[in-house]
Amino acid sequence: MTTDKPGGQVPPAIELRGIDKRFGAVHANRAVSMRIPRGKITGIVGENGAGKSTLMSIVYGFYRADAGEILIHGRKTEIANSAQAIAAGIGMVHQHFMLVETFSVLENVMLGVEGGALLKQGAAKMRAEIERLGQEYGLRVDPDAIVGGLPVGDQQRVEILKALCRGADVLVLDEPTGVLTPHETDQLFRILAMLRERGTTIVLITHKLREIMAVTDQVYVMRGGEVVAERKTAATSAEELAELMVGRKVRFAVEKAARSVGSMLIEAQGVSLRDERGLRLLDRIDLSLRSGEIVGIAGVSGNGQSALLEVLSGIRAPTEGRLVVLGREIDASKPCHPSEMRALGLAHVPEDRHRLGLVGGFSAAQSSILGYQRDPAYCGRVLIDNADVTRRAADLMERYDVRPRAPELRSAAFSGGNQQKLILAREIARGPRVLLAGQPTRGLDIGAIEFVHRQLMTLRNQGAGVILVSAELDEILSLSDRILVMFEGRIVGEVPASEADERRLGLLMANVRSEAAA
Q1: Torsion of Cα atoms, 127 then 128 then 133 then 135, to 10°
Q2: Omega of the bond prior to 6 within 30 degrees of 0, cis?
Q3: φ and ψ at 373, to 5 degrees?
Q4: Which residues does residue 193 pair with via DSSP β-bridges, in sequence order?
Q5: Which of 50, 172, 314, 426 is the right S-S partner for 92, CB 3.0 to 4.6 Å?
Q6: Which residues of the chain does CATH 3.40.50.300 include?
Q7: What is the pairing mode between strands 218-223 and 280-290?
Q8: Residue 1's pLDDT band (boundaries 50, 70, 90)?
Q9: How far is CA 184 from CA 95, 163, 229, 430, in A?
Q10: Strand order in the sheet with 170-174
């Protein structure tokens, strides 16, 4: 084991000295220095665009720093690519998984470390290693399962297995709970605790301060590309970290004024949806949405919430039942295209921002009008007025704090949180009559979450109706006027917000109705 000279002190697993990185005019990291101790969990928090992911991407070899040094276990180390990072014992689990969905678990873990030309021999060794790590760390997953068919939590386990099978003793996780259910998050934290007990060093990049307080030993706070604070977790609080992140006090409570609901905006009666294979995704859904209310949809991910939003937004037509959206009757024989829904006054923040929310290769300005590109406000006599679109996008980015303020920059170059803010700006700023909000604060920092919550509440108070789908139960509880719970494509319970709590909703989410009613 490498030791420092004075007193034989053990050096940190990673030490960063003056790391600096620019992307054109964007100064992403500004002389950042950190010490990541061995066998501990270190958190890195900051607003979207604060430089957290860029910094760890430098450590993992995705980017090269313009200046500064990286020391691994006390030795200066050049990391020009991910292969060198892996060789140095660093593994990274990215916010968006790097998996081949059509490959098995075993094939994904082996990819790049096949063990020579005799794949059968290498596969046998890797299978044994997957089984050993599964038992030792609670990372059990079927080696022969096709990754694309696995729940998100199991896919994340595959990513962790990939890193451990390559010999990683430092594990970097970038927003690891952004797509996990509360149950999957608890499972992940148990795995991280076991890894720490066995000496693995963990770096946790997250915007969720409750998670930082629950699992880390120390935390660095970044703002504007710089480290602005270092704290022992036991000696700080979520309130202090939030203030350090955004440079001001943050209000955690949502002010929800009493309101009388108005006219019917959406009414569904017996709505069902079957996929191409005949599998029932929605099963006789009854729901209503009136002006001036927020209806929250709770449920473990994969229980029909995504299908419901697709039907309500016009992406799919119901196969059975009757649906009326803003006065337009919809059924299997009378589908309604999403463009018609928008013309009626319905806006949609999709759950999957990359598949349905924006186009990575488009500029931020182009993504800011997706779905509205035929609006006369953007069009000249023949072509889109790109200069005007860019000006309008710059105004939206300023109002919704999208960073960097660069409308010409490719959408894919923005952090996940800033991509989300761009989509929210596009959909909310038009003042819709109905907003379908699918995981609207996924990947956002605490300051941005506060801002989005205010926007949703403003829409409600102005008479719009909001359907909110969120994996965050505290978000559902604080914003909703009524809460519906989904299980296996059905609505299994409705609870007024004033009578709801996490226990009651959790029981309904598991379809334990008798206890939930008690």
Answers
A1: 110
A2: no
A3: -65, -20
A4: none
A5: 172
A6: 12-89+171-245, 264-363+414-421+431-517
A7: unpaired
A8: very low
A9: 15, 19, 30, 36
A10: 90-93, 170-174, 201-205, 41-46, 218-223, 226-232
Question: Cα(186)–Cα(190) distance, rounded to whole angstroms?
Answer: 6
What is the distance between the alpha carbons of residues 87 and 262, in angstroms, rounded to a whole number?
62
pLDDT reported for residue 117: 55
C-beta neighbour count of 489 within 10 angstroms: 21
CA distances from 394 to 80, 151, 402, 427, 496 (A): 35, 38, 9, 15, 40
CATH class of 264-363+414-421+431-517: alpha beta
Question: What's the pTM value of the predicted model, to 2 decimals?
Answer: 0.73
Neighbouring-strand partners of residue 320: 272
Question: What 3-state class would DSSP assign to 345?
Answer: coil
Q: How long is the chain? A: 518
Rounded-to-integer distance, Cα 465 and Cα 148, Å: 35
Residue in the structure block whose two tokens are 């803010």: 421
For residue 441 the two structure tokens come to 């604060």
> What tokens were used for 466?
């909001």
Q: Mean of the per-residue pLDDT values for the chain? A: 90
At residue 432, the pLDDT reads 97
Residue 478 has pLDDT above 90, yes or no: yes
Q: The tokens of 151 are what?
A: 């729940």
- Please name every residue paired with 68 in a beta bridge, in sequence order, or none if there are none: none
Looking at this protein, which amino acid is placed at residue 58? I
Nearest alpha-carbon partner for 168 in 85, 53, 98 = 85
Structure tokens at 374: 């035929």
How far lies 384's CA from each of 373, 375, 422, in Å?
A: 8, 9, 20
